[in-house]
Amino acid sequence: MNAPAAQGTIGLSGQVRIGERPLFPPLRLTLPRGTWTALLGDSGVGKSTLLRLLAGLPIGGRFAGRIDNPLPVALMAQDPGLLPWLDVRQNAALGSRLRGTRADAARLDDILIRTGLQDHAHKRPAQLSGGQRQRVALARTLMEDRPLVLLDEPFSALDMRLRLAMQDLAAELLCGRTVLMVTHDPAEAARLSDRIAVLTAGGLTLTEAPRSPAPRAPDDPRVLACQGALMARLMAQDSA
Known about the structure:
Layout: E1 11-18, E2 21-30, E3 36-40, H1 47-55, E4 62-68, E5 73-76, H2 88-92, H3 94-99, H4 105-114, H5 130-144, E6 148-152, H6 160-173, E7 178-182, H7 186-192, E8 195-200, E9 203-208, H8 221-239
Parallel strand pairs: 3-7, 3-8, 5-6, 6-7
Antiparallel strand pairs: 1-2, 1-4, 8-9
Helix pairs in contact: 4-5, 7-8
């Protein structure tokens, strides 16, 4: 029998199989409240699957283990998931629309301005670039204002200038939330995270993030050192 979870624990332990093949070995992932955890690893190793498990969504496989999540979740998936018949403003406020409530108009205006979408507010998704669609998905996630936020490569479609700006915005608006972010970018993990986890075929391991408040300057020596260590670790895993 599973032992009872600690009060307020967020995380999971167990293993996923796709058919008879293990996606990853038995692991334990714990998310301390109010911290930002980055999750790195090769494509196909199971990072997005961990997010979907925590969000209570289907995974296309069989999970044997335990999920502990007492908190409401906002999930930003890799696919922006915008409804093509709604404009940018309506898509950003989709959560309220689905719940039959009125979105906070002032907060919505502020988030659209700060994500650089105010001039596109009445465009449909087909009229937007890939980076603009990703920013709409980010705006929608920020509008949800949930205590647990799951981000799957949230800045991957953005150019460097916008990427840094949106990282700063997310760090500000998600301060105090519990965040799990999947990323392939060691620099992103080093800038934003309190904790960094690396998922490989051998399992999940934690590594130390810079000991300074996030978001950190991209040229901070501690960020560069962490980024370099992560890159070396991931490259060593690829060649193993």
